[in-house]
Amino acid sequence: MGVFLIFPALWTLYLGLTDVRLTGVAAADPQFVGIENYLTALSDSLFYNALIVTLLFVLGSAVIGQTVLGFLLAWALRGWQSPVRRGLEVLVILAWIMPDSVVAFLWIAYLDGDSGTLNQLLPFVGETEWLLEHALPAIIVFNVWRGTAFAMLLFGAALNAVPPSHLETARLAGASAVQQLRDVVLPTIRGHILTALLLVSLWTFNLFTPYLLTQGGPNFETEVLPIYVFREAFSHGRLGYGAAISAIMILINLVIALFYIHVLRERTS
Q1: How many CB atoms lie within 10 A of CB 5?
Q2: Which pLDDT tens digit goes with each residue over 103-129?
Q3: Number of H helices, E strands in the chain
Q4: What pTM, to 2 d.p., does this model score?
Q5: Cα–Cα dist 135/131, whole Å
Q6: Which helix (H) or strand (E) element contains residue 150?
Q7: C-alpha neighbours within 13 Å on the C-beta side of residue 138
Q8: Could you state, in order of their start, the residue ranges of all structural domains in the chain?
């Protein structure tokens, strides 16, 4: 924990207070600049753009997409014991365990405007450049496809923890499937739901994979905060500024985690 987590975090905080660069004089002899990097970030419109894009990306793909679809898949497969179910689970999980570079190549080919698979399946849309004309929705759908398996596994384990006697009692009382879900299942696994939301939200917030699809374009429409940090720290060589943005990301992650923990404690008290 100290070597791989605490020390890098503290080192990042320190670098964020300096003007260290990748090359030049500041690389050999960085100077302490205090909160100058943070003030620069707060006055940079591209930082706010990256923050808004990141929040939309997390809301669309993690909070709404992966969580909802993952739960629906886990609910639909909860009592289905057959080889077909195992095959479906393998296909869904395969999307999660494939290397990022392979997945990105597949989706670039799928969404290509000239000869992409999606345009072939939807001939009425013409030669639509999905990664240019609908860039943010495209990476949101991509991440939903990519991460739903993780949410499905979490919810599958949660649904297995629901006592069968509770569902049987509700069924004998005449409750429909929707009523069982609303009155028995959701209250029982609400802690698991919040935990799943926390994990997929933090994972998505720090995701760099969209860079493999769009490199943050077009016109910064898909430049999430990890891509913004990469561009400033390595493309522009401003390591100190990139470290300051990373520290802000750590703070935002902490706020998200504390919010979920607060809601979880309220639900369980």
Answers
A1: 9
A2: 999 999 999 988 889 999 988 888 889
A3: 16, 0
A4: 0.91
A5: 4
A6: helix 135-160
A7: 28
A8: 45-236+246-268
Q: Are 236 and 187 in contact (CB under 8 A)?
A: no
The pLDDT-based confidence of 85 (bands split at 50, 70, 90) is confident
d(CA 104, CA 264): 35
Measured N-to-C along each axis, helices 186-205 and 135-160 cross at an angle, to the nearest 10 degrees, of 140
Residue for token pair 């195992």: 86
Q: What are the structure tokens assigned to 259, written together?
A: 């919010």
Q: Extract the tokens encoding 105.
A: 């190549």
Q: 96 is written with which tokens? A: 């999660």
Instruction: Specify which residues 27 forms β-bridges with.
Output: none
- Residue in the structure block whose two tokens are 């500024």: 241
Indicate the fold that domain 45-236+246-268 takes in CATH. MetI-like fold (1.10.3720)
Cα–Cα distance for residue pair 34/38, rounded to 1 Å = 9
Cα 212 to the center of its chain, rounded Å: 15
Cα–Cα distance, 173 to 62 (Å, whole number): 36
Region of 122 please: left (phi>0), alpha (psi -120 to 50) or beta.
beta
Q: What angle do CA 71, 224, 147 make, to 5 degrees?
A: 25
Q: Which residue type occupies 223?
A: E
CA distance 246 to 262: 24
Terminal Cα distance for the chain, rounded: 31
